[in-house]
Input
Amino acid sequence: MKVFSTYLRILNKHKGSISLAMIIFVAMAVISVKSSDISQITEFQEEKIAVCVINQDEDTVLSDGLKAYMNEHTELLRENEVTNIEDALFFRQVEYVVIIPKGFYKDFLLGKKPKLESYYVENSYSAYCVENLINNYLSTFKNYALSFPDAAPETIIENTKRDMETECNVSIGKGNETNEMNGWMVTFFSCAAYAVLGVITMGITTVIKSFKQIDVKRRTLCSPVSYMKINKKVWMGHGVFGLVVFGILVLLGTVLLGKTVFSVKGLYQLLNLFAFELCAMGIATLMSQFVSNSSAIAAVSNTISICLCFLGGCFVPLEYMSSTAKTVGSFTPAYWYSKATENLYELSEFRLTLMGGYFKCLAIEVGFAIAFFSIALLVEKQKTMGKWKEA
Amino acid sequence: MVKQIYYNLKLVIREKEILFWNGIFTILLSTMFALAFGNMLDYEKMEPVSMALIEEENQENEIFREVINALEQEGYIKVTKVTEEGEAKKLLAEKNVAAYMEYGEELKITVQESGYATTFLKSVFDNYAQKQATYEHMMEQLQRPLTQEEVVRLMEEENYFTKVESNHAEPDLVLNYFFTIIAMGCLYSGLNGVRLVKNIQGNQSDVAVRNSLSPMPRYKLFLSSVVANFAVQYGLIGILVLYMKYMLKVEFGTHMAMVFLVNGVGVFMGLSLGVLVGAISHSKENVKQWIVMGITMLGCYLAGMMDSSMKYKVQENAPFLAYINPSNLLTDAYYSLYYYPDMERTMTNLAIMCGFSLLFCGIGIFALRRQQYESI
Output
């Protein structure tokens, strides 16, 4: 057990640098999971567009009615609620700005054609929706005002309000209902890929580098323990280390997501994470064949984990990525991990016939792991044979 | 002095670790951002929403058909006509359409998910349903059919809006992610700052012991090291900016000379931060580098590196924090150069950055001066 306990001692010595990715992941997971409330989304929810109204006109019955209507359908912000409108528009905290010029309502009621001023993000759904809401409200008011010239403004507002309450019946298709917990699970498991890659590559490469130091290697080789036996212990160490990392992630998932982690969907997610961890171990073994300097290990480990997670869609959902990025990403295991996570997100029943996509992704991940391990072993064999031949 | 700068340049260029974090890593990260955020704003761009329309046999509604045709012609929707609900459900399940619609007494829309596209679709058909309601209510109240003129007026789409032409650039929030990377790169020169202080403090490194024995005054050693580190780091940031502009097509606005000025001030502020940390902290070099990286990364997080809206939220709720965060000052300088038509905001940021640089450097130099070693 000497080799195995040395393995653990090396890990303990470098625990700070090894656990860095895990700490970053915990921060990301806690922020994203705890920043919203749990709710079951089974009904269609209208997107509330943030609209800022700058009113330069006086308040009238019409303006009050319009504001009440806008309040129901948008996230209405007044001028004094936004310090810098241009910045708010850039960062999408406001999506549409309406300026009601002085005398607008008076001109409108007199039957003139006054204009509201606006600025917004060009060619966007939000701009169309807001203009549609306001145009329709004002047109309806105008129609009633022209057809019933003797009616009081309050009556016209009442009529307009009643018509505006007519809406289409919109529902979410069966099987497409989502629940917030399910969304959190995707976020959690997507980000977990970063922790797995960061911690496993850093840990395994650091240990292998220590065992490969020339003096240590010479001392080990002249001991009465066979090379095969030493290697077995090192691999056992890799296995235990991998299981500990997996256990920490399960524990963290239980804390953040509760019992959902142990639901059928959760268990399939864990299986996917396990397959990805095998890939990470393969990458780490391969990496350790080429990187020997401790500064270089940190650099390569960070580069690999960040690049794979970005390319694979772990940090940004695959739907937001360009087709080129997705094509490049499909040559990485992280992409298939994310794809499996997304497949599970969409599934509401877990019949084998529906899970073809998920199992395909899982098989590709395992394939990647086998490929990485094989190449690493081949490289190691070539290096060892080369040295013996030289000797 | 020139010779000293030359030797220091050789020293800096041989620091592969620092070159990696300050140069290659920032380029890699920006490439990843470009790949990952390529379609980030696509969800808000208006495109025809694909929908299936269930048209059962003998169903006649001429007005509705005209409305559908008009919406299709205007590019708001893309309609696939089906005759059975099962067919529509299949199209929805296979994600070939975003929604399907049945029309009878009332309009029933079934969507794949809530979102901008489906909200837009609802808005379009709400409009139709509301006009229909107005038509019926008016007939009811007038107790007569509507005249041709009234129907035309009702169906007319009046537009009450006129767009104000903004003199600001296109609001593209993805750019902020790239600006934070440049800010990170500039402030990572703090790592060089820590190293350069280590190389002139006799109790910190062998190089410093050798330097302390030389007849050259310490201020000259310090200055030559600052110049060499600044030159290398400024070059790396310059390469990063040019890579972003020409390879990743990141927009910087029209004032490229100002962008390079901001780079310079940013690199100098980073170096000063490193000098400050290196001079006042007595910890190991690693710890000092962690402090610099910690300040930089926390600052970048608050400047919107992980979530663009964070920068705005900090600015709105804690403006003081936005003004004392070096990462935010840099990000804001690039942002204002791109977005704002005038230089006022950029100049304010530059002035605060210069102030911080002088303050950091001043304290660092004060802590370093007159240090002498009888024995080490």
Notes: Chain A touches chain B through 85 residues (CB under 8 Å). Chain A has a mean pLDDT of 84. Residues 45-164 of chain A form a domain with the abc type-2 transporter like fold fold (CATH 3.40.1710).
